[in-house]
Design goal:
By secondary structure, the chain is of the alpha+beta class. It has one domain (2-109): Alpha-Beta Plaits (2-Layer Sandwich), CATH 3.30.70. Helices cover 30% and strands 32% of the residues. The protein has 5 helices and 6 strands; from the N terminus they run βαααββββααβ. The protein has helices at residues 12-16, 20-23, 27-40, 85-93, 96-99; strands spanning 2-11, 43-48, 55-56, 61-62, 72-82, 103-109. Strands 2-5-1-6 form a 4-stranded antiparallel β-sheet. β3 (55-56) and β4 (61-62) form a beta hairpin. The radius of gyration is 16 Å and the shape is globular.
Length: 119
């Protein structure tokens, strides 16, 4: 099996207006989804991300959020195992946030680098 990162992309304007309680109210349904992926042997790990951070370049660190002038940004990730990108995309499509139209998932294969512990 290959590894894939399922990147959660959400409308930052929308989630920026939510309280933490409102934003994380979807956790129970997400945990149920994660449990199903654990049972199927596909799940490795994942976490939500806070809506703050820094952009870092060679010459500067910009601190007005990780999504300067963006309307959509990364709000979390899941790392899974799948036979191929088609299966990974099918798994991503079952995410409750995707099913409810609250987020989209970007599906990216994880490169294997020889000599690096890749779990």
């Amino acid at each position: 099996m290959e590894k894939f990162m399922l990147i959660v992309r959400e409308d930052l304007d929308r989630i920026g207006k939510l309280t933490d309680e409102e934003r994380f109210s979807n956790i129970p349904m997400m945990l149920k989804w994660v449990d199903s992926l654990i049972e199927s042997g596909n799940y490795i790990k994942g976490e939500p991300l806070l809506i703050k951070g820094r952009f870092v370049s060679k010459d500067q660190i910009l601190s007005d959020g990780p999504f300067i002038e963006a309307h959509e940004g990364i709000s979390g990730y899941d790392l899974i195992r799948a036979e191929n990108i088609e299966q990974a995309a099918a798994i991503a499509q079952t995410c409750p946030l995707v099913q409810r139209g609250l987020a989209v998932r970007e599906v990216r294969p994880v490169a294997t680098v020889h000599g690096v512990n890749n779990e």
